[in-house]
């Protein structure tokens, strides 16, 4: 028993909990004691107060061995909400531990859009097995959603929607909803439809409850009503939700008939995923390489290609340096100062690149304003370059006692920072126009440009002015 206690002490996580966050070191101690004792009841007691999102965090944060122990001792702590909150890479592993009855119950707890999100990445055989656990009506709804293209509004929407005739009044709507036993668990609007089942507007629940019973629903329709088609890209849908402050929006088929609704929580998940993906790609890290639950093999697969690209760009920069071997041999100070020029250019390029990728994602950088933004970044690079050129010019003179060396590094600094600003904005914009994800490929190009230009300007000026 003492050995077990000592192991628990060694595995104790760092004290990084925030106030109000339940996954504290005390919780982990109680959980690991329950696991060491093989006591499923104690484990359930420790986990019972947690929110579904916190249980998902727990399963993602522990190691693979500990996760298996938890699921073997208490598989019933995982319900539909927990599965929905889990990272995609872990869902299949966790679902494999659930008995068929428990898995079916967990799936039946979810709205159709959440079920689609859970099973869309599985093989067809696995999908069929999971669909078999659903009621007939739910299965049909999920199968219809899976028939739409991946990353489309049809996949994102939920089929559960409250739709009422446009000629009803407030009292009709309230009475109808009170008599229903299967209303969606969470909804924000009532969609008004015409006789062809085409949406013509929607009414917010707040307005409905604040209006007299005799008031026609057509008089309290929301002004921000807009619809999406099933084939629309989910990224475009998420952008519209964020841009126009939507809470929910109907989805229509090719004939304009209502087939579902998208709610703000699903749209914001897409937006968060887009932002997370951009951040990881800017760092040269794929989705697998950036997940806390990924295995060593997955992380290596995610990061190796980008390190290989970085190696190629480094070789290109080294080939430029190799052209000036004689100059470096005659003036050793060039080798000392050379990394400074490249580093400053690389950092300036990354700053401009980050701004550009973010602006492209939010659609703030377009063909109509790209030239103005490029001119602005070039001016920023020029002013920063002049400031740092003055600093490095003085350092070059004081450090090496060579005034002309100070002039060389100052001029190279100005050139490279201007080029960094131009490349940081121009390259991602051109890649986006060419249909290439700018977050995925811009970093390698910008780094190559700043390194090559920085070395060439510095060493080339040194040959002209010093030798």
What features would you describe in this structure?
- This protein has 22 helices and six strands.
- It has 467 residues and is mainly alpha-helical.
- It folds into three domains: 2-156, Alpha Horseshoe (MgtE N-terminal fold), CATH 1.25.60.10; 163-263, CBS-domain, CATH 3.10.580.10; 323-466, Tetracycline Repressor, domain 2 (Orthogonal Bundle).
- Helix 15 links the parallel strand 4 and strand 5.
- Helix 9 crosses helix 11 (136-146), helix 15 crosses helix 16 and helix 16 (264-282) runs parallel beside helix 22.
Number of domains: 3
Give the overall pLDDT as a whole number: 85
Main beta sheet: strand number and arrangement? 3 strands, mixed
Structural class determined from secondary elements: mainly alpha
- End-to-end C-alpha gap: 76 Å
Relative helix content: 55-70%
Strand residue percentage: 5-15%
Q: Would you give the CATH topology of the largest domain?
A: MgtE N-terminal fold
Low-confidence stretches: 1-18
Number of strands: 6
Describe the global form. Answer: globular
Architecture per CATH nomenclature, i.e. the level-2 architecture of the largest domain: Alpha Horseshoe
Which strand order do you get reading across the main beta sheet? 1-2-3
Name the CATH class of the largest domain: Mainly Alpha
Listing every helix as H and every strand as E from the N terminus to the C terminus, the arrangement reads HHHHHHHHHHHHEHEEHEHEEHHHHHHH
CATH superfamily of the largest domain: MgtE N-terminal domain-like
The gyration radius over C-alpha positions equals 29 Å
């Amino acid at each position: 028993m003492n050995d077990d206690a000592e192991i628990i002490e060694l595995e104790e996580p760092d004290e990084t909990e925030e106030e109000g966050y339940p996954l504290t070191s005390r919780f982990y101690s109680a959980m690991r004691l329950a696991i060491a004792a093989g006591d499923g009841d104690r484990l359930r007691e420790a986990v019972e107060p947690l929110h579904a999102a916190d249980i998902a965090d727990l399963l993602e944060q522990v190691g693979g061995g500990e996760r298996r122990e938890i699921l073997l001792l208490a598989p019933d702590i995982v319900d539909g909400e927990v599965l929905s909150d889990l990272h995609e890479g872990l869902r299949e592993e966790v679902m494999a531990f659930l008995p068929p009855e428990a898995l079916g119950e967990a799936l039946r707890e979810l709205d159709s859009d959440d079920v689609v999100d859970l099973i869309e990445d599985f093989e067809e055989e696995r999908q069929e097995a999971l669909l078999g656990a659903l009621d007939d009506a739910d299965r049909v709804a999920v199968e219809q959603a899976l028939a739409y293209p991946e990353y489309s509004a049809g996949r994102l929407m939920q089929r559960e929607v409250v739709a009422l005739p446009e000629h009803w009044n407030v009292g009709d709507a309230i009475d109808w909803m009170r008599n229903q036993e299967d209303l969606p668990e969470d909804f924000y609007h009532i969609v008004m439809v015409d006789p062809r089942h085409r949406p013509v507007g929607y009414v917010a629940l707040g307005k409905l409850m604040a209006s007299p019973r005799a008031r026609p629903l057509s008089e309290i329709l929301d002004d921000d009503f807009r619809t999406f088609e099933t084939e629309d890209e989910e990224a475009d849908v998420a952008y519209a939700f964020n841009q126009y402050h939507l809470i929910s929006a109907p989805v229509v088929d090719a004939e304009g008939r209502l087939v579902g609704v998208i709610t703000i929580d699903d749209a914001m998940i897409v937006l968060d995923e887009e932002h997370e993906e951009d951040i990881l790609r800017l760092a040269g890290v794929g989705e697998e390489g950036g997940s806390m639950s990924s295995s060593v093999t997955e992380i290596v697969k995610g990061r190796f290609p980008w390190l290989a690209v970085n190696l190629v760009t480094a070789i290109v920069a080294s080939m430029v340096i190799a052209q000036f071997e004689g100059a470096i041999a005659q003036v050793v100070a060039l080798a000392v100062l050379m990394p400074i020029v490249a580093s400053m250019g690389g950092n300036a390029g990354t700053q401009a690149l980050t701004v550009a990728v973010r602006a492209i994602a939010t659609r703030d950088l377009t063909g109509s304003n790209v030239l103005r933004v490029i001119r602005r970044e070039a001016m920023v690079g020029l002013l920063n370059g002049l400031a740092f050129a003055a600093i490095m010019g003085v350092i070059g003179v004081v450090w090496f006692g060579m005034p002309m060396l100070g002039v060389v590094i100052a001029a190279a600094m100005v050139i490279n920072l201007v080029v960094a600003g131009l490349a940081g904005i121009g390259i991602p914009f051109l890649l986006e126009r060419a249909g290439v994800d700018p977050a995925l490929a811009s970093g390698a190009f910008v780094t190559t440009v700043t390194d090559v230009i920085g070395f060439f300007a510095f060493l080339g000026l040194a040959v002209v002015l010093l030798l």
